[in-house]
Design a protein that fits this description.
The structure holds two protein chains of two kinds.
Chain A lengths: L2 E7 L3 H11 L5 E7 L5 H7 L3 E5 L5 H14 L4 E4 L11 H9 L5 E5 L9 H18 L11 E4 H6 L9 H11 L4 E5 L6 H6 L3 H14 L4
Parallel strand pairs in A: 1-2, 1-4, 2-3, 5-7
Antiparallel strand pairs in A: 4-6, 5-6
Chain B lengths: L2 H22 L5 H19 L1 H11 L4 H41 L6
Helix pairs in contact in B: 1-2, 2-3, 3-4
Classes of the chains: A alpha/beta, B mainly alpha.
């Protein structure tokens, strides 16, 4: 079983190196999609022996994820894992994340930050709950964490996902695709490591609202 | 002739000349030409003959021709904005597809 981790990265030189190093023992290959970074994201990833695919211009999370998934499939991945470059995900949780896929109990696994109680800034928790509700009403998907960046897909699931969104709204689009393509989904509890850095990189209020508008807008395209 | 009529007609003539020129120089397609030219003929026409707009407004149950013109313009503007949004979205995803294609192909980018 070849497991490939995809890290979409836009100007993440501070944390990317450590993320790649911690990841190595858990996966067969690491793919970094350098989404038009202007810092040393690309060189750092290469130096740490990750396979780097570079977007000439910044396209956003959705664009980078799809590039990563296509690259992973080209590299003959059996299981594809996505995680954030900001260091908020603990690579030691990967075995737990991919277990349902190996046991064929799921095609898609979402790492949820809300299945166990853990500290999260209140405002962020409210925003997440709201977007979960949006995902439920728009797509009929019940999820405790619609915005999670830590996911695992079987090869079959990855091949069937049709991702069209460019930005952060991709997280909701993936859930919609899981529902539409009738993939078996499972949620696995994960920890999220909130540092000042990862908080500054995540979605604050205004980008959150933008994501919501994009999700609503994308309904025209679905 | 009222001053505003003169102003509108002069402006419309200017726009019409731009439309015709752009079409001649192949800067706009036949589709756009057929869309924009009648529009800019109707606008000065209603200003020259306000009675026609009033007449149409009566048929539709509106008080004044000017109201009808305002409603129609706003509808038209919103529709055009919608079209532009759709087009922009399409261009955005086309750009992403090109950028992705280059990223996946370019061997120099990889290790």
């Amino acid at each position: 079983m070849k497991t490939v981790a995809i890290i979409p990265a836009f100007n993440e030189e501070k944390t990317l190196g450590a993320v790649i190093l911690n990841l190595k023992k858990h996966v067969s290959q690491i793919i970094v999609v350098d989404d038009g970074s202007t810092d040393k994201t690309g060189p750092i990833a290469r130096e740490k022996n990750a396979k780097v695919y570079r977007h000439l211009i910044n396209r956003g999370l959705g664009g980078a994820l799809k590039t990563g998934i296509e690259a992973a499939l080209q590299n003959k991945a059996d299981i594809i894992i996505t995680l954030d470059a900001d260091g908020q995900h603990d690579p030691n949780e990967i075995p737990k994340l991919i277990k349902p896929i190996i046991e064929r109990k799921a095609d898609a696994v979402i790492g949820s930050r809300f299945l166990t109680r853990q500290p999260m800034p209140l405002f962020r928790r409210m925003g997440n709950n709201f977007l979960n509700l949006v995902a439920f009403f728009l797509f009929g998907v019940r999820t405790s964490d619609s915005q999670s960046g830590m996911r695992a897909f079987s090869k079959k699931a990855a091949q069937s996902l049709e991702i069209n969104s460019n930005g952060m709204e991709v997280s909701s689009e993936i859930l919609k695709e899981i529902k539409v393509k009738k993939l078996k989904m499972k949620e696995v509890p994960i920890k999220s490591i909130y540092t000042d850095y990862s908080l500054s990189k995540g979605q604050g209020f205004i980008p959150g609202i933008k994501t919501l508008i994009k999700i609503l807008w994308s309904l025209f395209n679905f | 002739m009222v001053f505003i009529q003169f102003l509108i007609i002069a402006f419309a003539l200017l726009v019409i000349s731009r439309i015709v020129l752009s079409f001649k120089r192949k800067k706009i397609s036949l589709k756009l030409f057929i869309f924009w030219l009648p529009l800019w003929l109707i606008i000065p026409a209603t200003f020259l003959l306000p009675k026609t707009a009033d007449y149409l407004a009566k048929i539709l149950g509106l008080g004044r021709g000017a109201d009808l013109a305002t409603y129609l313009s706003i509808l038209m503007i919103f529709y055009l904005i919608f079209r532009i949004f759709v087009r922009l979205e399409k261009i955005e995803s086309d750009i992403t597809a090109i950028v992705r294609g280059i990223a996946l192909k370019d061997k120099d980018n990889r290790k």
